[in-house]
Design a protein that fits this description.
With about 240 residues, this protein is α/β, with parallel strands linked by helices. It has a single domain, classed as Alpha-Beta Barrel (TIM Barrel). The protein has nine helices and eight strands. It has a six-stranded parallel beta sheet. Strands 1-8 form a two-stranded parallel ribbon. Helix 4 packs across helix 5 and helix 6 runs parallel beside helix 7.
């Protein structure tokens, strides 16, 4: 199938999931995951009307983003090391993978130096997988107040990477748990958190039914990758 055909199928799935839950399809943002994709592939997708892309590695993004249109926008969705925060703050408009107070503090520092405010999502390891990064669910609220108090950080919601499965229904409870955790975080902060980034190529319909506002789609849009599948969260976000 062509890129245009893939995109049509994805949009049909989004619309169907929204119809089942009486949601406006406009409330769901499609985030193409362009890791391991060439600038030419990014341009081809951009020509179909998409201008927001997700990258998992800062070094790859540093090389790729300058080769793409300056009109495109970028989210960091992979594991971020503190020594890469300066570049992440420069190249990305949102960092979705904040998984510690230490990382949030470094992003805050680098955002201050750049005279900008950095929107972030807090990554939650909702299934407790040893192979993935993210906050344990019971730890998130412990750090939330301190992170929210950082003056160059804007907490906009939560993100998770569910375990891979051939049956999306198996991960529905995890998506529901993340939504419920977001609701508890909102009560704790007395403020809305607008985003839930959850759902990838194999399970995004179920994620939308459970409240996803951002779905991260790689292989369903670009096609299968040629390299060996990795298990770490930084390489498992599509």
């Amino acid at each position: 199938m062509t890129l245009a055909g893939n995109l049509e199928a994805i949009r049909n799935t989004i619309e169907a999931a929204c119809a089942r839950t009486q949601r406006d399809p406009a409330s769901v943002t499609l985030l193409p995951v362009s890791k391991s994709q060439s600038p030419d592939a990014v341009r081809a997708v951009a020509e179909l009307g998409l201008n927001l892309f997700g990258e998992s590695k800062v070094q790859e993004a540093k090389a790729k983003i300058p080769m793409c249109s300056s009109q495109l926008r970028w989210h960091m969705i992979g594991h971020l090391q503190t020594n890469k925060c300066r570049d992440a703050v420069h190249f990305f408009e949102v960092i979705q993978s904040v998984d510690s107070l230490e990382l949030a503090e470094e992003i805050n520092k680098r955002a201050g130096q750049a005279a900008k405010t950095m929107p972030i999502l807090l990554e939650v390891n909702i299934a407790g997988e040893a192979s993935k990064f993210g906050y344990p669910p019971d730890r998130l609220l412990q750090d939330l107040e301190q992170i929210n108090a950082l003056n160059r950080i804007e907490v906009q919601g939560l993100m998770t990477i569910a375990p891979w499965t051939t049956d999306p229904e198996k991960v529905r409870p995890l998506f529901r748990q993340l939504r419920e955790l977001k609701e508890r975080a909102e009560q704790f902060l007395h403020a809305p958190l607008p985003h839930l980034s959850m759902g990838m190529s194999g399970d995004f319909g179920v994620a939308i039914e459970e409240g996803a506002t951002i779905v991260r789609i790689g292989t369903a849009l670009f096609g299968p990758r040629s390299h060996t599948r990795q298990t770490k969260a930084s390489d498992d976000a599509a």
